[in-house]
Amino acid sequence: MIPRKYSLLRRNIIWAGVIFFLCAIPSDSIPDPKLNIPHLDKVVHFGMFFIMSIFLCSELRYQTRLSLRKIYLIAIGFSFIYGGLIEVLQFKYFNRGGDWWDLFADVLGGVAGCLLYPTAKKQKDKLVDYLYKKLKSRKEV
Q1: Are 63 and 4 in contact (CB under 8 A)?
Q2: Which of 10, 42, 99, 141 would staple 105 via disulfide (CB 3.0–4.6 Å)?
Q3: Residue 14 has what pLDDT?
Q4: Residue 66 — φ and ψ, nearest 5°?
């Protein structure tokens, strides 16, 4: 069995790879979802970095003794640096246009993930506790 700290690290690396892959594919290869949502790409950027931020907060909270404030600064800083790197790569190498508003959506997603991390953790802990109790009660029967 893989120790939890490595599975958390692997989860973050895989998610960063998913973001990189989705941002690296040529824009003409992306199918049109036929949704009439203005600035849908900004919503997608927000969502990807929202999830990344929650994953980072979870890993850093579990593996370090840093305060939540420092963890949030790291997660938001990472969103800015990684999002900025992707935008530069899109502009220079991926035959896509780098966009400041995409970077803004990335950072905003990181901030929102940090703000909602405590609530997401509480809900996850409640669900895990509920499932554990349910499983334990089945074994006793």
Answers
A1: no
A2: 42
A3: 94
A4: -70, 150
Give one DSSP letter per residue of the chain, joined into a string: ---HHHHHHHHHHHHHHHHHHHHHS-GGGSPP-----TTHHHHHHHHHHHHHHHHHHHHHHHH----HHHHHHHHHHHHHHHHHHHHHHHHHTSSS---HHHHHHHHHHHHHHHHHHHHHHHHHHHHHHHHHHHHHHHHH-
Dihedral angle, C-alpha 114, 120, 122, 123, nearest 10 °:
170
Chain mean position to CA 104? 15
Place of tokens 């900004």: 42
Question: Model confidence over 50-77: pLDDT tens digits?
Answer: 999 999 999 999 888 999 999 999 999 9
Distances (CA, A) of 13 to 19, 20, 72: 10, 10, 18
pTM comes to 0.84
Six-digit token string for 56: 């980072």
